[in-house]
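tool=predict chain=A
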Amino acid sequence: MKTGKTRIGFAAAFLLVGMAGANAGENWLQFKYDRRHSGNVPDRSVTTPLGLIGAVPLTDAVFTAPVVADGRVYVVDGAGVVFCIDAATLRIVWKSTARGGKANCNSISSPAIAGNYLHFGTTAGTYYILDAATGAAIQSIACGEPIFSTPVVGNDRVYFATLGSRIYALEPDGTICWTWDFVKEHLGFTGNRWSGEDWHKHKKGRAIARRFARCISGGGPAWTGTRKARARSA
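tool=predict ok
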């Protein structure tokens, strides 16, 4: 567990970056700005030198990127606690703690805004959809395995992938549109994907390390310019 001093340092860094977009009146709704997660914003500029505006203590270190919408900054810390912070006053508007207890550690699924909803996944294996204005839980999806990927928002859909290579497509409010399972559909494997013994039986004793590693790569969805998303390795 990080010390309080370290936690504040992480929080201050996120506020400094997040508030630059919020003060300019621009929304930054998902990781690296767009649905391709390209980070390609050549028409933006940063005024230097940068300076510390303020710090808000969170409950753990921050391994995710914040998003900015309508003057508020949203961040998920390492323990799966979500904070909504007013960019102008640094006041915590609301916070919400994900279920899972100690299984929520080192969370790296950055949040995304889709319409009026905030989306994010946890290492405890649950995906959440919250009301961005109030923090109220709208939906939760028990995936049964960690979620390391960051959601992709595009064409009124939200896509995310689990560590076990299951892809989900959702409506902004969390309604599931479809799911796709790489392990079942592509590899034809129906056993316990986390069991080396099951994989050994499935492959009839042949080497399985390469394919097993591929199925648990933790790759997230990538936008291809169509209404579908494909999996890519992390």
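DSSP finds four helices and 14 strands in the chain. The longest strand covers residues 81-86.
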